[in-house]
Amino acid sequence: MSFLQTLAIRNTILFLFHCVPSGLPAGQYCDLISDCAKKFNVDSNGMADISPHDGHEPFVAFTTKSKNVARSIAAVHLDEYVPPSLSDNKTTVIFIKAELPDGQDLFIRGGIDHARRQGCDLMDARLSGCSLPIRHLAVGNDTYFQKFNTWSKGDNYLDWYGTELHQGEYNHQRPYGTPAVLTTNRTDEPGYSPYNTFGHGYWMVAVEMDCTRTQNGYFEIKAMVNGAWETDVSSPTCSGNGGGAWPYNTNNHWARCGYKNVFQYGSGTCSITTL
Ligand SMILES: *[C@@H]1O[C@H](CO)[C@@H](O)[C@H](O)[C@H]1NC(C)=O
Ligand SMILES: *[C@@H]1O[C@H](CO)[C@@H](O)[C@H](O)[C@H]1NC(C)=O
Ligand SMILES: *[C@@H]1O[C@H](CO)[C@@H](O)[C@H](O)[C@H]1NC(C)=O
């Protein structure tokens, strides 16, 4: 049964939903705000990626069978925005080495697996127990950092759901998640970061993170480029003094709160070291 048939038969209520739904049955859905011009897929894990028809209005409308869920979500939308406090923050740095064509940007999503934790049903970064409160560190004020700084604004969670409600938008470009900035280890180049002791091509996310929301200090991440998820990876462990035994199995990267985490795009090779 298609989504529209479901709509017609059940006459279910419409509501606005922030970015990426989950917990929906696998299949193709469409965005009612764009009169179904925009389609999106939900995979067998209930994960979806949605581009709203208008980036200034980061919502899509679709139906659900549950009126309770709908009411909760509507309440989320109307809430006043309050950035989360970080109860036990540690500086956490994530690098992903990726050679991307000019003009492409790398974002990360992550947190804790929905199957491993309760309280992740509302697919809103602020309410989901699977998202991790973060605060971006200042990395630079040069024009080189302008795009990254715009996207970092209002990005207060590492989460699975994409653009946050109050997250900055650069030139009508919607951030696909937590933005990374392309760094180098050369002091004479724009994009220099003292955390980068490696070389060119390292995309960096440097944040204060609430470690109490992680799984024994660990959390998952996956990159997203041009709206597409990075391929699945397998990492039995990571090198470095912070690599170790993972809390559970995942096809994403494992990273550690309070450490410097270095990954390769699309590969299980990684290192986790103290900062
Ligand atoms: C993180 O912890 C540091 C050191 O305790 C503190 O100065 C800083 O304000 C905290 N950051 C946030 C966002 O709470
Ligand atoms: C950028 O400017 C802000 C505000 O003036 C300052 O707090 C921050 O330290 C600067 N960041 C860098 C990396 O220079
Ligand atoms: C930057 O990294 C490259 C590659 O590892 C290395 O050859 C070079 O010496 C480093 N440069 C600096 C300034 O650290």
End-to-end CA span? 52 Å
Strand content: 25-35%
How many DSSP H or I helices? 3
- Heterogens: 2-acetamido-2-deoxy-beta-D-glucopyranose
Shape: globular
Mean pLDDT: 81
Helical proportion? under 10%
Secondary-structure content class: mainly beta
**Rg on CA atoms, Å:** 19 Å
Largest sheet: 7 strands, mixed
- The total strand number stands at 16
SSE succession: HEEEEHEEEHEEEEEEEEE
Low-confidence region ranges: 1-22, 52-59, 63-79
Explain the overall architecture.
- It comes from Biomphalaria pfeifferi.
- Residues 1-22 form the signal peptide.
- Keywords: Signal.
- This is Alpha-amylase.
- The protein is mainly beta.
- The chain contains 3 helices and 16 strands.
- The strands form 4 sheets. Strands 5, 7, 8, 10, 11, 15 and 16 form a 7-stranded mixed sheet that branches.
- A hairpin with a 2-residue loop joins strand 15 and strand 16.
- The model is unreliable at 1-22, 52-59 and 63-79 (pLDDT under 50).
- The structure holds 2-acetamido-2-deoxy-beta-D-glucopyranose (3 copies).
- One 2-acetamido-2-deoxy-beta-D-glucopyranose is lined by residues 185-186, 198-199.
